[in-house]
Specification:
The strands form 4 sheets. A 7-stranded parallel beta sheet has the order 3-2-1-4-5-6-11, with helices on both faces. A two-stranded parallel sheet has the order 7-10. Helix 6 links the parallel strand 5 and strand 6. The chain is 37% helix and 18% strand. It is built from 10 helices and 13 strands. The longest helix is centred in the N-terminal third of the chain and has 21 residues. The relative contact order is 0.14. It is of the alpha/beta class. It is globular, with a radius of gyration of 19 Å. The structure holds uridine-diphosphate-N-acetylglucosamine (UD1). Uridine-diphosphate-N-acetylglucosamine (UD1) binds next to helix 7 and strand 8.
Amino acid sequence: MKQKILVTGGAGYIGSHTVVELQQSGFEVIIVDNLSNSQKSVINSIEKITGIKPGFEELDLCDSVKLESFLKKHPDIKGIIHFAAYKAVGESVNNPLKYYRNNLVSLINLLEIAKKEEIDVNFVFSSSCTVYGEPDKLPVDENAPVKKAMSPYGNTKQIAEEILYDTVQSERNLKVIALRYFNPIGAHESGLIGELPIGPPDNLVPFITQTAAGIRSQLSVFGNDYNTLDGTCIRDYIYVVDLAKAHVIALKRLLDNRNITPYEVFNLGTGTGNTVLEVIKSFEQVTGNKLNYTITKRRAGDIEKVWADTQRANDILGWTAEKDLLPKKI
Ligand code: UD1
C-alpha cells in the first residue's frame, strides 16, 4: 500500500519537482493548488514524466470549509509537504496584508483542520534563507540568529516557522521539518516542468531564460557596487531536483520517526556562493547564447551575500546537493 502524501502548491515550481520525486520513491501524491501562480497543465506534465497521474484538487487553503471537506475525504493522508504560498518579495512590500493573509491563514487552516480530522501530521515546511537576513557570519548555519525580516514575505516565513515551532510543543500528533532553501534554480531534465511564473519573473534565472528566449528584451543586474569580487550580489544557487530530493528524505525521516526533536530545521543549499555576473556568464557559456543585460541600481531589500553551511543537512539528513553552477571556472 502506497503512503498518501498531500502536497500543497504541488503545481508550482518546487512543488512539481517534489511530486515527481515522491512518486518515483513510491508515494501516492495528492496535490492541492489554487493555481494562482501555476498552470493546471503541470499535472499532465508530471504524469508524462512518471507515468502516474497525481491526484489534484483546485483549492485555496484559505477556504477552511473547502479544506475541511477535502481532508474529510482523505483521512489516510500520512504526510503533508506545504509549499503553497506567495513568494514575490516586492509585491509583499506593496501589499503586505495579501501576504500575511495568504501565507499564514493557509498554514493555520491546514494545522487546525488536520488536527480536527485527527490526521497524524508529518509536516515538511517550505522555508527560506530569507530568515537569516544579512548574516553576520558566512557560510550561515541553522543556529544563526533569525534577523528582522527585510520584507513582509520574509516575515511570513519567520512567523510560519514560529507557528510551527509553538504548535509542535502542544500537539503530540505533529512533527515538523522546516527546510530553509537558498536559491532554487533549473528545471527537470525532461524539460516538461520548470519555473513558469505567471507574468514577469521576479527571480534571476527565469528572467535570464526569458531574456534569452526573447520574451524579455533586457535583463537588469541590480547593482554592481556591493562588497563582492565583481560588485554583484552573492547567492547560493541550488538545483531544484536536488532540493526536491531533500523533501523526500525529510518526509521519510518523519514517517520513520527518525527525527531527534519534533521540530527540526535544515539549510538546503550547495555551500557555495556565486555572483549575479557569474550566473550570467555560466548561462552564456553553457548555452552559447549572449545575454542582453545592463547594470541598474540596487533593488530595495536585497542582501549583499548569503550562502549555506550545509553540514547539518549533510550529516543528519544524509543529503548533499549533487549539482553546482557549471562551468566551475569562469
Ligand atoms: C528572494 C528571497 C528568497 C525567496 C526568493 C523567492 C530575500 C532576501 N530573498 O531571493 O527568500 O525565497 O526571493 O522568490 O528575501 N537579480 C538581478 N536581476 C533580476 C532578478 C534578480 O540582478 O532581474 C539579482 C538579485 O539582485 C539577487 C539575485 O539576482 O542578487 C537573486 O535574486 P532572486 O532570484 O530574486 O532571489 P533572492 O532575492 O535572492
